[in-house]
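Running this now, will post back.
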Amino acid sequence: AGPFTLPPLTYPFNALEPHIDARTMEIHHDRHHQAFITNLNNLAKTNPQLGTAQITDVLGNINALNDDIKFAVRNNLGGHAHHTMFWEIMGPGGGGKPQGDLLAAIDKDLGGLEKFQNDFNAAGGRQFGSGWVFVTVAKDGKLAIETRPNQDNPIMDGKRALMGNDVWEHAYYLNYQNRRADYLKAWWNTVNWNKVAERYAAARTGTLGV
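Update: finished.
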């Protein structure tokens, strides 16, 4: 029990097959994400401010935390934020292409959809060890492809994560083993562009949550 709760998936574990298998989704959501929640609730017992502050405020001011909790908050709150976003931007019937303002921004800032996807996959493949590949949104609204190690969040650098893919091995190893490149390519078939567009609109108005 505590202020942090595991957000439920809005689709079944097998909804993203064959691109992400049901067993991976179950373990990833119910065990890995739940571990972040459990750790955060334990931290909140002695640091109740963690449960009342906005997640973005805490991560955006990570260096203001006491050294005794900074590392744990960085990893667990970052992981909670990343995975909450991750489940949201995927779904059954995903894939295709974005539309409207989001597509226009991708064309303008990232060189078009095909180049963007290729560059995103390449960046994810280059990320050494565990981490994430993101599309970030700067304060001026400009999009960029960036990677972060472990559970570091772009807001730590004054940017927001529009979308991202998890390249920790637990996200793909049961099905893809060491073939991260194959996972990165297949993942686009799970992307719910409508949700990404909603996040983009929120980022432009300063209302984007985690």
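The first strand starts at residue 131 and ends at 137. More later if anyone needs it.
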